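Private note to self, pasted from the team thread so I don't lose it. Backbone tokens:
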């Protein structure tokens, strides 16, 4: 590694920002100067930054996925030479856009990830944006939410499947709501989206940060963890939008009778989320069932049998 000190100013530009710390390693350059090589991540991507350990001390108590603020210059190599590196303060974190510091690097489904960020940042309700940030940016949950499959052997059983399935459910539930109740207020539409997006958030307790099943996967139903995973965000809504907080609790405890708590649905949003959940799962299973055959007739996936009719080719002329 070449020494990066004393880079001419015309070959660099100033740099400053708040990110998640997602990697660090000590390297020695050709002049025997020790550098701390850092990976700083957000929803856009990653930055590789270098910190000269002979000139700048490393602050204590900065851990994996902590918010950090870094300032320096960008070099022609694309790396950053830092002259300030510290833990971000509360105001700096609060000033970030919705889900801005969610690390894109951890998501194996980039299209789904970009869709999540775009929709979250487009929400009109500041309280709903804050709620999603409190739930999804918890550093003990975010890796598993981005990495985990939706199931081990059933639908969306691949890394990033949980996010893909969650977005399917959220978008389809909102589509049903708008089709059937077009006059529903915007806040309720956004609540429906959040309910669908987080309906399986309890699965983040049953997979580790790499998306592999853990002990909780065998010992507990993921449904039992849903409210626990959202507790920090629901506590915020209880103060600012208490009826919305209760709406979310109701949806998550009755959306799938026989699977969750079985509470009878008292509002249409609960049915939309329940139906969208089943549709997303069946679509993925049906696509997998017919992936390796002619695409019509009967096909089996596990214990499930699927059928597609044989259709003749129709001419539109």
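Design output:
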């Amino acid at each position: 590694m070449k020494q990066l000190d004393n880079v001419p100013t015309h070959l660099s530009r100033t740099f400053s920002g708040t990110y998640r710390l997602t990697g660090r390693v000590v390297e020695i350059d050709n002049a025997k100067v020790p550098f701390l090589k850092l990976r700083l991540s957000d929803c856009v991507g990653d930055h590789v930054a270098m910190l000269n350990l002979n000139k700048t001390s490393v602050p204590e108590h900065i851990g994996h996925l902590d918010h950090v603020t870094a300032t320096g210059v960008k070099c022609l190599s694309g790396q950053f030479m830092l002259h300030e590196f510290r833990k971000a303060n509360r105001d700096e974190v609060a000033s970030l856009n919705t889900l801005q510091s969610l690390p894109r690097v951890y998501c194996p489904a980039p299209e789904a990830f970009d869709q999540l960020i775009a929709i979250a940042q487009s929400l009109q309700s500041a309280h709903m944006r804050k709620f999603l940030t409190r739930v999804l940016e918890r550093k003990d949950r975010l890796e598993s939410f981005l990495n985990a499959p939706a199931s081990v052997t059933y639908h969306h059983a691949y890394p990033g499947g949980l996010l893909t399935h969650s977005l399917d459910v959220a978008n389809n539930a909102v589509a049903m709501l708008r089709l059937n109740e077009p006059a529903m207020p915007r806040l309720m539409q956004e609540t429906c989206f959040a309910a669908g997006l987080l309906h399986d958030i309890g699965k983040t307790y049953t997979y580790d940060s790499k998306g592999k099943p853990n002990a909780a996967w065998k010992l507990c139903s993921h449904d039992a963890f849903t409210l626990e995973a959202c507790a920090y965000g629901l506590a915020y809504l209880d103060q600012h939008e208490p009826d919305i907080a209760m709406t979310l609790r109701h949806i998550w405890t009755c959306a799938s009778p026989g699977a969750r708590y079985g509470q009878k649905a008292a509002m249409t949003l609960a049915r939309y989320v329940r139906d969208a959940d089943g549709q997303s799962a069946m679509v993925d299973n049906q696509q997998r069932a017919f992936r390796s055959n002619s695409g019509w007739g009967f096909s089996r996936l596990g214990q499930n049998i699927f059928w597609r009719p044989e259709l003749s080719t129709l001419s539109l002329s």
